[in-house]
Structure formats: structure tokens, C-alpha cells
Design goal:
Layout (H helix, E strand, L loop, with lengths): L9 H13 L18 E5 L2 E6 L2 E4 L18 H10 L8 H8 L1 H11 L6 E4 L4 H11 L4 E5 L9 E3 L2 H14 L3 E5 L10 E9 L2 E10 L13 E5 L6 H14 L3 E7 L5 E6 L9 H22 L1
């Protein structure tokens, strides 16, 4: 079940993983049909989960995979998440509370702080914070910060701010868009060549299963592939041990058994953010990400059938 209006390509990889592992084509449903205003229905009938939309009726599925849901679309799926949770059907990482925490960076920062997860200092500002409040936060954080909206993806509307003129420009941008925003101290995450770099790490049930290094030649741009960074898959063993522990702790703090994390080794090792649905578009991601993720659902289903 995915938002079929999205074009990142994760659902194709998931469908291929299901076919590879089970020998059967998956039943693909559009998650948008299961919002309160959608035509689909999800209910529990005689202790069995029933999903029905677009002429397709699924009764008592062995497992349900929900993926490729953009942040803006997640709140509308909370009723569906409630039904899935009550059904007992294996559906990994769809807790509504975890989605809310991961989708709102202010809440994420607070969750990390409460759990003692290492991160760079951040301050949150409302859309109408004003220049004086923004300048106070900028100064408190050391005058070298990143500004980012509390809800976003792909590194959009993220700015490196090192002077008051850049700060005012960012403040005006967020005010015009009515966005809450964060200022976060720069982690000084440069490699030996002086280029920005960080890691994308995917955690599944407490274990790191995927690591990619992102290199950004523009020191004022975020290390997102969508913003010009290059991504190179690495063996999970290439990630220092303390970063394995940091990634697992961050996923646990938010309540996600499966999550993508952006983190850096510099500044002692810090987490930048967590993603509910990291994309499966990278080379090798079918085998390294989609297959293990689907297999985890199948393992849960097998365990439930023998319980």
C-alpha cells in the first residue's frame, strides 16, 4: 500500500521484492483511498482484516506493507494505522505516534534529547518569530547554522546561514510560507578533501542494514542527492561501531523499527534527522533494503501463524 501519486519509485522495488520472496505478485493498493475522504474501507470483520478499494477486496492478508507516504499525507492515514494495529496483521513500522514524531523535526529533536541521542543544538521558531528572535537564536547557536522547515523532505527550503542577511532572508521565506522552522548548529562535517559529507543509514529492527556516504561539493547545500550530493553505498561494516549504536538508538527513540537516518561522524557523532520511508532508488537498494524489509514482514507473519 503506497501513495501512488508519488514518483520516487519505492513501490516498484517493494513489488519486485514481494515477487522474489513469495513467487506471487503483490496486491497493490493506493493508500490515498484509505484516508477519511477516500473511497476505500479498512475494517475488522469477525476478527479478520478487510481492505477494499477500487474493486479489489482483500480479506485477512498475511501481511500489509505501507510505504512511500509523503509527510503531508501521513496524518490522514492515522485511522488506517489504528485499524491495522488492532487487526494484529504484521505491518512493520506504521505506528501513528512514531510517524508524527519523525515527520515533525521539532518533535524529533525533543525525542532525541529525551533519549540522550547525540545531535547538534537546535532551536525552533514560529513562522512569525521576527528578526530579533531569529537573531537571538542565531547568536545563541554560534552564528553558523542550518535553517530548515520542521516538515519537509529532499532538502527543500534548507539553508546554510552564516550572517544576518542570510538569516533575514530565511526568516522571510518561512514567514511567507507559514512554516515553523529550526536553526541547528553546523556540525563541521567535512571530509579530508574539504567536502561536506554525511551518512544515510537504514536501521531494521535495531540493526544497521544499509549505509551510503553522501558527498556534497557545495558547502552551503544540504547533503541530499536531490540537492546535488553524490551517494556511494558502503558495507555496513564500514560505518564506525559507535555510529551503529547511535543510529539504532535514534530509531528506538522515535519508535520506528525501520527508519532511514542522516548522521555525521564529526562533532563526536550526531544525528541530523530520521526518515519514515527512505527511498529504494539507489543502486543495490532492491537487495539491500527492499528485500530485507519485506522479509521482516514475512518473518512476522510466519511467527504469528505458529504462535
Amino acid at each position: 500500500m503506497t501513495d501512488q501519486g508519488e514518483t520516487e519509485g519505492s513501490r516498484a522495488a517493494l513489488a519486485q521484492a514481494v515477487l522474489r520472496l513469495t513467487g506471487s505478485e503483490p496486491i497493490c493498493l493506493d493508500a490515498r483511498d484509505f484516508t477519511p475522504s477516500g473511497p476505500g474501507r479498512a475494517e475488522i470483520v469477525a476478527d479478520r482484516l478487510v481492505l477494499e478499494a477500487d474493486g479489489v477486496r482483500v480479506v485477512d492478508p498475511a501481511a500489509v506493507v505501507v510505504y512511500e507516504i509523503p509527510p503531508a499525507g501521513r496524518p490522514a492515514l492515522e485511522p488506517l494505522q489504528d485499524v491495522l494495529a488492532r487487526s494484529g496483521v504484521p505491518c512493520l513500522g506504521t505506528g501513528a505516534g512514531a510517524w508524527r514524531t519523525a515527520s515533525d523535526k521539532e518533535t524529533m529533536v525533543k525525542a532525541f534529547a529525551a533519549a540522550g541521542v547525540a545531535q547538534m543544538p537546535s532551536l525552533c521558531l514560529p513562522p512569525d518569530a521576527g528578526e530579533a528572535a531569529a537573531l537571538d537564536a542565531f547568536t545563541e547557536l554560534g552564528g553558523d547554522v542550518w535553517a530548515r522547515p520542521v516538515s519537509g523532505m529532499g532538502g527543500q527550503d534548507v539553508f546554510h546561514v552564516t550572517d544576518e542577511a542570510e538569516l533575514r532572508q530565511a526568516a522571510r521565506r518561512y514567514a511567507a510560507e507559514g512554516q515553523r522552522w529550526l536553526l541547528t548548529s553546523d556540525a563541521r562535517n567535512y571530509n579530508a578533501d574539504g567536502l561536506r559529507h554525511q551518512y544515510r543509514v537504514v536501521v531494521l529492527q535495531g540493526r544497521v542494514i544499509w549505509v551510503a556516504e553522501h558527498i556534497q561539493p557545495d558547502s552551503d547545500a544540504p547533503c541530499n542527492v536531490a540537492q546535488g550530493a553524490t551517494s556511494t553505498p558502503l558495507s555496513p561494516d564500514a560505518l564506525p561501531g559507535h555510529l551503529h549504536e547511535l543510529a539504532a538508538a535514534a530509531a528506538e527513540a522515535v519508535g520506528l523499527p525501520y527508519a532511514g537516518l542522516d548522521l555525521a561522524a564529526e562533532s563526536g557523532g550526531v544525528v541530523f534527522e530520521i526518515n519514515v520511508h527512505p527511498a529504494f532508488g539507489a543502486t543495490g537498494a532492491l537487495e539491500g533494503l527492499a528485500v530485507p524489509y519485506v522479509q521482516a514482514h514475512l518473518d512476522l507473519a510466519a511467527a504469528a501463524s505458529t504462535a
